[in-house]
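U., I forgot to send this yesterday:
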Amino acid sequence: MSTTTTLPAWQLPDRDLTTRLLTTQRQQNVAYAAQLETIRELESRGALPEGYTSTSAYLATILHVTLREARSRLAQATGTLPLTWKALSAGEITAQHAAVIAEFLAAAPRWLTPEDYTVAEDTLVTLAAQANPSIVRRAATRLKIYWDSDPADAPGSPDLDHGLDPDSVPGSDSGSRPEEAARPRREFRWQWTQGGRFRFSGNVDHETGTLIEQLLVPLAAPDPAITPGTPDPRTPAERHGDAIAAIVDLAARTPDLPAKAGERAVATVTVDLETLRGTAKTLVTEDESVLTAADLRRILCDAKVYPAVLGTEGQVLDLGRSTRTATNAQRRALAIRDRGCTFPGCDRSPKWTTPHHIVHWAHGGPTDLDNLASCCERHHRLLHHSGWKIVIREGAVHWIPPSILDPERKPLRNTAHNPPPTPLRTATMSTPPPPRQGS
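Result:
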């Protein structure tokens, strides 16, 4: 028996902690599938002890779950979900994934053909293997809208009401003076700390605050689990900080950004070519800020910093080659090809992404479509500072996980942006979906 399953967690090396997390989550998924199989057999036999009027009531009692949860498990166990069942039994998706898919397909339109039903299930199961249940639910909602259903009835539509009454929030603008409607009072204070951190505070009017909140809520959502059982480790404050960074990153790339001295805001870093290619600890910008070589290589993907690359004799070899950055036409082509961030399970749209050079330009990588991939700010940083790699196969971007997550390092393709499957409905079609009982 492996030491990762016999030793207590505190005795395991760091790498084996991750291995145990992945193994136990897969075991949990398989065990849940086995429980559903037992529930289905119990229901089919009608083998309830005396005193219980329904299988759901019996399950709620003996499993110590709510009646709602018991009904959900019964629906999953008795529904026609062969692909979901297969993935769950293999440990590839979680109980939450199965619940989302079962809930959605139970409400599928009656005019769907059996083929439509199977394609829809396959679409969601494929996404579930790489994304968290909330991403799968959003994909299901998009599919339901595509089926001409009422989106308000989509299962699990999120209610983003935080329960905050604007009139009860200190400093709110509910009692603003009339003149403030024409010139809202907004304040922003900032300073650099001795440790090189940018600290800020302030407040804005209600309208601007609402707009900021609408940007922050989706951007600060937890990242999809890289694998089942590995939730986003960031705190809410850290997620909101990353969301602010993504908003600033987007604003910095807009063509309408004001110019300074005829040029968009940039910084210049003086660095020799070998240092840029190597693993130097730190580099200094023109304003004496400090960057690591790894950070510089990541930032250079979208030319927020211009490198003044020097040869051995100090001559300027490159001062921000224009060919390093993707053209507007290439960005539009990437938006069409990638549909957004290419990290498995990420559903950020194209406007929140930047082109990443798969082979870095400093290593001779061209700024061509077959050497570019769309990444959101969060996953762009992950790519440059982790063991993830990118390859393009048959015109599609695939991410290769580090060996600690997958020893076989199988390439993964993001399916979160895939369009809904086209129904086979015709004007006269009235074929019902597959029966909901048995499998």
